[in-house]
Amino acid sequence: MLTVDAIKTALDVKGCTIFLINRESNNLEIAASFGLSDEYLNKGPLSALKSIAQSLEDGPVAIYDVTDDPRIQYAEAAKAEGIASILSVPIVAAGRVIGALRVYTSEPWEFTLDDVNFVQAMAYMTGMAIEMAKHYKGMKDSIDLLKTLRDPKTLKSRRRTPYEGVPVSVLAPKAS
Fold first, then answer.
1. Could you read off the pLDDT of 12-21 as tens digits, one per residue?
2. Distance between CA 130 and CA 32 in Å, rounded?
3. Which of 47, 140, 149, 174 has an alpha carbon within 20 to 30 A of 110's alpha carbon?
4. Where are the domains of the chain?
């Protein structure tokens, strides 16, 4: 939420949304948004293959007039929301596109190179944060699992023999 709020405030735009790709449905799902109405955000499923798909494949896409661009999936909803222009930038994590960061303006806006670079940098940092969160969750889950394996209650009740867990090939040969 902090990222979308910061971008909205820094660029003084109508709103900002982070979408993540659902690989099963190929839809863009809202992860965070600021400045847009619930009605607009819940307008319907947003296809990663139809809604400014070029930004997920080729990089940043700026749309000056949402009412006159075929890449907009819900042009009427955007118009009703008061959106005039959109900048869509891919979010990349671990070398693959995982979503899109979109900036919405209420007035027609020709995004400058500085605007695009700023939003790209924020999308890059968002991707890194998401990747770090996944690693953190994985490590936390592993630590929790290890803690249950080392639970003192479990250790006291299990008595081990000196050879328990030693591969058979390591054991001393039997005397004949």
1. 899 999 999 9
2. 12
3. 47
4. 2-137
